[in-house]
Amino acid sequence: MAETEGKPQVLLFPFLAQGHIIPFLALALELEQRKKYNITILNTPLNIKNLRSSLPPNSSITLLEFPFTSSDHGLPPDTENTSAIPYHLVIRLIEASATLKPAFKNLVQNILAQKQKHKLFIIAGIFYGWTATVAKELRVFHVIFSVCGAYGLACYYSLWVNLPHKCPGSAQRLVDSNEDQFILPDFPEARAIHRTQLPSNISEADVTDAWTMFQQKNLPEWVDSNGVLFNTVEEFDFVGLGYFKRKLGRPAWPIGPLLLSAGSGTLGKGGGIYTEWLNTKASKSVLFVNFGSMNTISASQMMGLGKALERSGKNFIWVVRPPIGFEINSKFREEWLPEGFVERIRESGKGLVVHDWVPRVEILSHFAVSTFLSHCGWNSVLESLSQGVPILGWPMAAEQFYNCKLLEEEVGVCVEVARGKSSEVKYEDIVAKIELVMDETEKGVMMRKKAGDIRDMIRDAVKDEDGFKGSSVRAMDEFLSAAGSHVPDGEKKIHLKE
């Protein structure tokens, strides 16, 4: 690794998923702007190859690959990213990533042998609790970087460590004895959680399953870290941040939103066709439908959504991925949608049906876009709110249910359309929700106003000018100060600012 003498070495190690790698890249680029650090991103060969094509031409960021052969772990050949596998294989990829531990530890030891240990710190993903244990053993400053929001991850973390829905009749139940609802014992601020808000891996957890065994080892290892970075904004996510401060006894630094801008050169090409189409539409008249790179819905849900979009009469861009039951990289088939749908939409000019990658930020920032129908993955949430675009939520997995819950119940910028990948949804209900948010209803007007307020809040959080520093700028400064002044246990105690 090429280094500049005297600069601290920063190792960034994201999990093997686009939704994790992209915020890590954004963080690396942010740190690079400070010109004070030697920055290295660690990952497997195929992910490093993709990252290399994403870096700006003159970037000083180093990319380092760890050897990894997916077929050695019961995965399809050349599988190094969740976007290439169905959801049920994600846990196998997570388990396989733990085999990178020896290479990671060896790298850190080699760096320490070459330079002072206080000039090295590690930023690792949420599925790499073991990196915190390695860092503690080697007495290196370490933080977990959560690409999720604090509130959503707090619910997710609490569910895994407590499994309250597996304790019928316990104190976790609500007073009304509704067996389908429960309170999180260490996060009561979230109020009632309903069984339908449980991702399948938590709902089906039986203590001996692969997900439970992994998380009950991974999550407790977070206490070996020196803190947690969150890709979020303190002003609307302070409740979740508070949970981690008290749960881990560590600082929780909200440094978001860390996003790749539409003009950064890191988003790929192909935005022209969407911009041209959007330019023909009136202001705030388009619904953007995109469920991210890992999520899809059932065949019947897809039919219902197609029918709802057509019946609503709204302009829309819909990114269609193969429904459940089809290969994740299957070519688009018109049979997934109502008969004649694609032709009618093409003739009317009301919609674009897309089955490839799209530049989300570029689309969401366009004046014609009114509302985002999303799975409520946190990257999508931040991209939408950063542009002041309200959300129609269809959470499907992981902490998405609790992101949606936060945005609807606490922030007021979201209406849940549907929940999960298997529930049957009436198309009439989807149409009603679309009209509620996009039309000049009292609810729609209020949501757009609140989304605009959140946009301004986000802009203030990252502002650093004329002597003013926003909350995310201050949090980043505090984190870097703590990393720079870190002294390992046993040498000298320091107090980290929270």
Automatic annotation (TrEMBL):
Domain of life: Eukaryota
GO molecular function: UDP-glucosyltransferase activity
Keyword vocabulary terms for this entry: Glycosyltransferase, Membrane, Transferase, Transmembrane, Transmembrane helix
InterPro entries membership: UDP_glucos_trans
One Pfam entry name: UDPGT
Keyword Transferase carried by entry: yes
Protein name: Glycosyltransferase GT21C20
